[in-house]
Prior knowledge:
By secondary structure, this protein is of the alpha+beta class.
Amino acid sequence: MASGSFRFDGFELDPAQRRLMRDGTVVELNARYFDALVLLLRESGKLVTKDRFLDEVWRGVPITDEALTQCIKTLRRQLGDDATNPRFIETIPKHGYRFVASVDWAEQASTEPTAAAPILPAPSYSWRDVMLLGGAGTIGAGIAGAIGGLFYGFVAASQPLESGGGASVLFVLLWLTVVVAVIGGAGVSFGIAAAGFAQRGWWTIVGGALGGMAIGGIVKLLGLDAFSLLLGRLPGGIAGAPEGLLLGGAVGLAAWLAGRPRSGSMRRRIAIAGLVGAAGGVLVPLLGGRLMGGSLDLLARTFPGSHLRLGQLGTLVGDQDFGLVTQLLTGGVEGALFAACIVGALFRARDRLHLPT
């Protein structure tokens, strides 16, 4: 296909050179917003639905409605357009957008006439995007860990200890839980972010699962080596690769479902993520695994001299010590927190940083 450019009302957009000009002056647009404008120009006069923006511009990478709104708002600002009296981009409420100005396609270096418009260039996705999104998700995981650590810490500190030190127990559990959540969250978040290279939203499930499995396996291996070296005893049932695979896959699924166009507002997306994460967290103990609460209880029972006691949680739900019912409840809460915080942070990063992803 011959190269060429779109021309409309003093503007010229060259898809091949990825350049927008206005009366000879370059108009700055980031990569994703540029692709959105190309799609609108290519379909000039026709409705472009939100689903088409997701499929052809974001290539299935989860985004919020706010991200698309911000994209159109930026395009209007750069074009000098007005949403209330549009010259270029018209909003079709609850459906999408339409480019309403007259558009001409001018070919270059070609002697054969053709009316075909260019194919939308594949949007860029860089390691910078992976680092920013993965970092945001890791921060979200740290927030989830802090909440969980405070909860377990207050439960443990509320029980009488022979040597006192309730505040120390709270402090240790808080930071231990935060560290574990940050490490695990980093694997899941960077796995989901790296899945953007596949340009298919459902790959976030694979990315989250593989990231969680890798980090879970490494952390468990190092943890067991540390216990064996320092204490001469192995608490073999603590969380590891299988739990990481399952919970990471649940977070990836949550990100995919929350990113679909009909998911609605940010609160709704976070709620969806929390529900999916809770399901994954409940499934872990049902399959014989353990998350943070179950692992802490196992460690306390493996080492009789430990001052950590979480059995009080079981008595609140009529369970014997930290039994299966307690593990199901705490697993669901942990999974919900983990998924909601990571997914919320990922989407907030896309919206606030205006990443071309």
